[in-house]
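User: tokens in, sequence out, please.
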């Protein structure tokens, strides 16, 4: 990503006019608004005047929770945040619309997204057992039928995924140990449609537990907390690699 330019405008009309003029530059422009409702309204108004720039205009929402409150972040918000951060890697002149709260919180490094993304292509070697292991490691949840972002389901040689990228569901069909086809899937009817050659699956969360993260957490807890404080339920959950509502605020 190139250097970002942050603007301060007297009103929304002035900002839309000026941002529209800069869409052909090589800079990433950041527009900060009060809340996510204003962010979506700004994007809608901007694209009504410049519809051909729809791929450049991204929204980075905040988690819409208060820091350290035991409230889980909505999966759709996590999906949009990861999608925006993923797209920013390949957009030299993006328009990022965000809130002050989102601007003040940490985001995952691009290495995290690249390392934990999964590219599935027609012809790839895959088995149901290997698929289950990979998806669980990336934070997806196994269900009987997929119904929300982050779900996956296995039925014999049929692999269904509700991906975080673009909030799109897919169906992969295996022939023996090879991916024979990949199709877009309608969640309501559970019918597959358009055939595609590959899909890129983003991680399901802005954190993933691993041996490395457990080691780092143990070292940090020993460094900053006395033994009695480490017995706090949230800290114990981190050490035992159990997720909990509001975990995003505990991670660096």
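Assistant: Sequence out:
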């Amino acid at each position: 990503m190139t250097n970002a330019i942050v603007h301060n405008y007297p009103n929304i009309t002035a900002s839309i006019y000026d941002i529209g003029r800069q869409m052909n530059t090589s800079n990433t422009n950041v527009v900060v608004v009060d809340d996510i409702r204003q962010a979506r309204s700004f994007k809608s108004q901007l694209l009504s005047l410049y519809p051909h720039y729809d791929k450049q205009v991204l929204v980075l929402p905040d988690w819409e929770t208060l820091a350290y409150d035991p409230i889980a972040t909505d999966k759709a918000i996590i999906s949009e945040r990861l999608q925006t951060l993923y797209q920013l890697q390949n957009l030299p002149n993006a328009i990022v619309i965000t809130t002050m709260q989102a601007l003040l919180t940490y985001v995952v490094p691009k290495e995290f997204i690249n390392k934990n993304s999964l590219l599935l292509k027609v012809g790839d070697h895959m088995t149901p057992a290997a698929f289950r292991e990979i998806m669980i490691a990336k934070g997806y949840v196994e269900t009987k039928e997929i119904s929300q972002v982050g779900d996956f389901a296995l039925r014999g040689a049929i692999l269904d995924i509700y991906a975080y990228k673009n909030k799109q569901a897919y169906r992969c069909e295996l022939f023996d140990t090879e991916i024979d086809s990949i199709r877009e899937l309608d969640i309501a009817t559970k019918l597959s449609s358009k055939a595609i050659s590959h899909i890129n699956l983003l991680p399901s969360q802005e954190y993933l537990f691993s041996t490395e993260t457990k080691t780092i957490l143990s070292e940090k807890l020993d460094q900053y907390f006395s033994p009695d404080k480490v017995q706090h339920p949230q800290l114990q959950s981190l050490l035992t690699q159990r997720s909990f509502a509001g975990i995003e605020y505990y991670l660096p």
